[in-house]
Amino acid sequence: MTRILIVDDHPLVRAGFAQLIGDCPDLEVCGEAADMADALKQVDATAPDLAIIDLSLSGGSGLDLIEHIKARNKNILMLVASMHDETLYAERVLAAGARGYINKQEAQESIIQAIRQVLSGKVYLSQHMTDRLLSGMVDANREKRALDRLSNRELQVFELIGQGVATSQMAEQLNRSVKTIETHQAHIKKKLGLGSAHELTQRAIRWVMEQDN
């Protein structure tokens, strides 16, 4: 029996995944978690074979969680299920240590296939993303190419800016000093070629809105 941990801050998403997994006689859900801290507790308590992880979590990003789980137990396989843009995040997810990426819009039909592919030792990505990676030609628009220059932490800060989170709240949420967050913001502006905090905020808001569509 393969043991699976589900990490997502939406109860309905967790319930949906649990039902699909429960219909498979060789798979079982060994735990569920809504945030990063609980996920790490569940990892230690249940020792899952595979963890399904959302990128947007309270107490830290899914990318952070992937790295923490990998450091704790390198034998745990990880599959990301998220609404974020695969073309921007798939390579970051794989670099962090996960073995696949599935968009939540496709997850109901493909989550079991993705789980089995990862369990078999293969990487799971959409066919579109696989073709792009194999060809070595990432046909991204200017916005995505610019965002590729950001580090994982800078991208996380950029997303929080777009969500309207104040600098002091970011510092608390990411367990960093306000000065560190401001430094990240300065680096983001430089990498994106933006001249002011207002331009940065507008760009981040627009990007977050695009992710939600």
Structure description:
The chain is of the alpha/beta class and 213 residues long. It has eleven helices and five strands, in the order E-H-E-H-E-H-E-H-E-H-H-H-H-H-H-H. The protein folds into two domains: 2-135, Response regulator (Rossmann fold); 142-212, Winged helix-like DNA-binding domain superfamily/Winged helix DNA-binding domain (Arc Repressor Mutant, subunit A). 59% of the residues lie in helices and 13% in strands. A five-stranded parallel β-sheet has the order 2-1-3-4-5, with helices on both faces. Helix 1 (11-22) links the parallel strand 1 and strand 2. The protein is globular and about 55 Å long. The mean pLDDT is 88.
Class computed from helices, strands and strand pairing? alpha/beta
* Broad CATH class of the largest domain: Alpha Beta
State Rg.
Answer: 17 Å
Strand order of the largest sheet: 2-1-3-4-5
What is the averaged pLDDT score? 88
Low-confidence stretches: none
The helix fraction, in percent, is 55-70%
The major β-sheet equals:
5 strands, parallel
**CATH architecture type of the largest domain:** 3-Layer(aba) Sandwich
Q: Would you identify the CATH H-level superfamily of the largest domain?
A: Response regulator
Order of helices and strands: EHEHEHEHEHHHHHHH
Distance, first to last CA: 38 Å
Number of domains: 2
Helix count, DSSP H or I runs of 4 or more residues: 11
Tell me the strand percentage band: 5-15%
